[in-house]
């Protein structure tokens, strides 16, 4: 088969690889229809993920058709169209029993990090019963790649962790795919104010189309004041950090209201300052997590019912023969006005 392989820092190549086979009774092999690129794939290319070594097939997001199943796999049959979860989970270890499937002792984030991932014609998925989800025929399979990771992350690590409530106020710092997913899922909880913050005017315009009540370009010197003015100086009940750099985390600490919650979603590669000298008496909480993807069935039902529109999240797509161009586009997402970038195998 053909696969997109991480060949060293900063480089990916389309190479010939052996088609995967069933290695355990709980495995399934899936023929990929559509895959997508995640920001963590770029972290691998930057050599920021020590577990990911050259020679690895990248990717942990995708939609495909079941090609073969192990004897212990339930719910899935050969020929079924499925959504691949970014997290694999056994369902039985001490972390899975607590709902922290991201830390499954034999699963978690393995695809495209510890084992070959989804950016190939075929992928082996461990713990397939809980790590694959039947994809209804009414859902566009290319758009559905955003349900592998971006939407569960935006909902679980952003919206739920920041305790978005009816009538509350929400600020999302970072209008990338996960920030946009947080915006779309936050709307389901009917807050009275959702504000998106970013440096990119194109993405801010898109956020307004997605339902943000207001947007603020953070390049100006009075960003914090403009944001506080939107809440009459009180700050925001729910603050979602979706970038992962010190300056945005510092901004979030300044924006949280008394009794509010900060949800860190961004992947931080350097240390940040926690200003307890100004936060200790404000009755706030700060939550950070890796996505467990336990919300995926709920998200699929919301899309199928028309309550959640995911159709605008995938803005660019390329045939697999142009997979390296897809990566170049995603690396320069701002200049290409890109959110999710899909790789098509059909």
Oligomer: single chain
Assign the structural class, choosing from mainly alpha, mainly beta, alpha/beta, alpha+beta, or little secondary structure: alpha/beta
- The proportion of residues in beta strands is 25-35%
Do you know the CATH architecture of the largest domain? Answer: Alpha-Beta Complex
The level of helicity is 25-40%
CATH H level, superfamily name of the largest domain: Medium-chain alcohol dehydrogenases, catalytic domain
* Structure summary, number of beta strands: 16
Number of domains: 2
Briefly note the CATH topology name of the largest domain. Answer: Quinone Oxidoreductase, Chain A, domain 1
Distance from first to last alpha carbon: 14 Å
Q: Gyration radius, to the nearest Å?
A: 20 Å
Largest sheet: 7 strands, mixed
The average pLDDT value, as a whole number, equals 96
Describe this structure in words.
Keywords: Metal-binding, Oxidoreductase, Zinc. It holds the Pfam family ADH_N. One of its GO terms (molecular function) is oxidoreductase activity. There is one protein chain. This protein has 346 residues and is α/β, with parallel strands linked by helices. The chain folds into 2 domains: 2-149 and 292-344, Medium-chain alcohol dehydrogenases, catalytic domain (Quinone Oxidoreductase, Chain A, domain 1); 152-288, NAD(P)-binding Rossmann-like Domain (Rossmann fold), CATH 3.40.50. The protein is built from 12 helices and 16 strands. The protein has helices at residues 39-45, 94-97, 128-131, 150-160, 177-186, 201-210, 223-229, 246-255, 276-279, 296-305, 323-331, 333-336, and strands at 2-8, 11-16, 28-36, 56-57, 62-69, 81-84, 122-125, 132-134, 169-173, 193-198, 214-217, 236-241, 256-264, 285-288, 314-319, 340-344. Strands 3, 5, 6, 7, 8, 15 and 16 form a 7-stranded mixed sheet that branches. It has a 6-stranded parallel sheet with strand order 11-10-9-12-13-14, with helices on both faces. It has a 3-stranded antiparallel sheet with strand order 2-1-4, with no helix packed on it. It starts with a strand and ends with a strand.
């Amino acid at each position: 088969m053909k696969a997109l392989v991480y060949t060293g820092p900063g480089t990916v190549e389309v190479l010939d690889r052996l088609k995967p086979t069933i290695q355990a009774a709980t495995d399934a092999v899936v023929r990929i229809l559509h895959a997508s690129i995640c920001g963590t794939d770029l972290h691998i290319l930057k050599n920021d993920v020590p577990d990911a070594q050259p020679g690895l097939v990248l990717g942990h997001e995708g939609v495909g058709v079941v090609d073969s199943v192990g004897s212990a796999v339930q719910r899935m049959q050969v020929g079924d169209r499925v959504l691949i979860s970014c997290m694999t989970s056994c369902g039985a270890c001490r972390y899975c029993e607590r709902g922290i499937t991201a830390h499954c002792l034999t699963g978690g984030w393995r695809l495209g990090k510890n084992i070959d991932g989804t950016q190939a014609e075929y992928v082996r998925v461990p713990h397939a019963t809980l790590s694959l989800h039947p994809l209804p025929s009414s859902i566009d399979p290319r758009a559905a790649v955003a349900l592998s990771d971006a939407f569960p992350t935006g909902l679980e690590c952003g919206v739920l962790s920041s305790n978005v409530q009816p009538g509350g106020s929400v600020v999302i710092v970072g209008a990338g795919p996960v920030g946009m997913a947080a915006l779309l899922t936050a709307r389901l909880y009917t807050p009275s104010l959702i504000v998106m913050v970013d440096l990119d005017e194109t993405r801010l315009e898109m956020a307004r189309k997605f339902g943000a009540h207001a947007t603020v370009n953070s390049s100006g010197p009075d960003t914090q004041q403009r944001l506080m003015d939107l809440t009459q100086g009180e700050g925001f009940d729910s603050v979602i950090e979706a970038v992962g750099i010190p300056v945005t985390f510092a901004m979030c600490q300044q924006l949280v209201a008394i009794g509010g919650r900060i949800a860190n979603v961004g992947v931080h590669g350097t240390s940040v300052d926690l200003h307890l000298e100004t936060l200790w008496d404000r009755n706030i909480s700060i939550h950070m997590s890796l996505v467990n993807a336990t919300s995926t069935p709920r998200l699929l039902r919301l899309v199928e019912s028309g309550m959640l529109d995911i159709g605008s999240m995938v803005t660019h797509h390329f045939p697999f023969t142009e997979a390296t161009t897809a990566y170049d586009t995603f690396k320069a997402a701002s200049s290409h006005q890109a959110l999710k970038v899909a790789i098509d195998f059909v």
